[in-house]
Amino acid sequence: MDKLAMFMRYLLCGLVLILSLYPQALLAEPISSSPRYTPVVKAVQKAAPAVVNLTCTQITGRRLSPLELFFDDFFPGFPQRRPQMQKRASLGSGIIVDGKRGLVLTNAHVIDQSDEIMVHLQDGREFHAIVRGAEPDFDIAVLALKGAHNLPELPLGDSQDLLPGETVIAIGNPFGFSHTVTTGVVSAKGRTIHSKSGMLTDLIQTDAAINPGNSGGPLLNLEGQLIGINTAVDTRAEGIGFAIPVNKARRVMESLMGESRIAPFWLGILAEDLDGQTAWALGLEQNHGILVTAVFEHTPAAKAGITAGDIIESINNTIVGDRRDYIGLLKNQTGDPLSLNIRKQGQLITLKIAPEPFTDNTAQALLTERWGFTVRETRRGLSIQAVRPGGPASILRSGDLLLAVSAMPVRNQKELLQAFRRERMANQILLQIVRGGRSYYARILL
């Protein structure tokens, strides 16, 4: 009986303990089976550890006021004043895409002109970051975290098969509030917008709230995969945000990590704006588009059958307003075939054309032919080497220093070629030169 009594005593104690925990042990179901544990919650829990907060600091100097300079000049006994250095901090977001190497993907405009970049993880860790590479044309930058290894990382998805109406999630650090989650849908694909750095194409439009500080953060699908990099918001209306597709970001990142640049693309044409008078003469109702004036041999345009006199009205369903729109649209491509709406002899046709890289060698040869001069790099900068007699730049002389092209500084051959790519279709350019120690502006008609 003693053993039975002891057994019953232990059994009673066990029942009392179970009953005391009844709400937690019996009634509360596991969170994984709770209706609160939605696909959005699962995706956020999966991705959040790899989303980081960026604090970018820029050091600037404040010039002395005239009054301060007066005291310095006329009262030498006073302590010498010097320009004060100030720090400006901005916030942004980023995504760890390679935990082993500590690589972070973000927007180029987030880290632009930063002297110091600090990266803050959700678990409280902080790292200094260095810029491994940036492509302002695509608004993509890659950072490397100093001393970081085996960090959480976010898997890259596929932005090719996104569906309008598909649920998406944005995580970022708006206004300094870390790891803020918003949800929405894919509103549209293939959008084109104008940004401070130029034109961005093939963007994902979403109504998931994107606020200042969200730039560089992830746009996720319900599987917790990265499908876009949040980059811009349309301030004219609520619920219109844009993200760079992850497939494009992946290509740019691979190029940057390979220590190379994605060469700008071109089709191999020269063109002029289609103004109202020209459109009227051609019997057209609209005056948008560009009029092809020349097609270079063995280029994508020549192979596709484009000829002088054709009118390019749109690229990938984006209207080409003028030559700058055309160049901006090509600058933000990665080599995929483009769909062009072209008016040829009054008939509207659609062509599929794969652009080719506009290499430095091609740009240099075309610059020499179209602008009519060559340069060489010196310790003082770019010096005019030769000028074609009777050419458009005959006003130049050998030995002139070239400082800028249409207000774009050119300090070396690389920057000159960048300026040429931007202005290659212009009817005129403005050159800033130095001759005999004096600065001049020379207008070149093409």
Brief account:
By secondary structure, this protein is of the alpha+beta class. The protein has four domains: 48-67 and 86-145, Beta Barrel (Thrombin, subunit H); 167-257, Trypsin-like serine proteases (Thrombin, subunit H, Beta Barrel), CATH 2.40.10; 265-357, Roll (Pdz3 Domain), CATH 2.30.42; 360-445, PDZ domain (Pdz3 Domain, Roll). The protein contains eleven helices and 26 strands.
Structure description:
It is a single chain. The protein folds into four domains: 48-67 and 86-145, Beta Barrel (Thrombin, subunit H); 167-257, Trypsin-like serine proteases (Thrombin, subunit H), CATH 2.40.10.10; 265-357, Roll (Pdz3 Domain), CATH 2.30.42.10; 360-445, Pdz3 Domain. Helix content is 23%, strand content 38%. It has helices at 2-20, 22-27, 39-47, 66-74, 108-111, 246-257, 276-281, 300-304, 323-331, 360-371, 413-423, and strands at residues 51-62, 84-98, 103-106, 116-120, 126-135, 140-145, 167-172, 180-195, 198-206, 218-220, 226-233, 241-245, 265-266, 269-273, 290-295, 311-315, 318-319, 338-344, 347-353, 356-357, 373-378, 381-387, 401-405, 408-409, 428-435, 438-445. Strand 23 and strand 24 (408-409) form a beta hairpin. The chain is elongated and about 120 Å long. The termini are far apart.
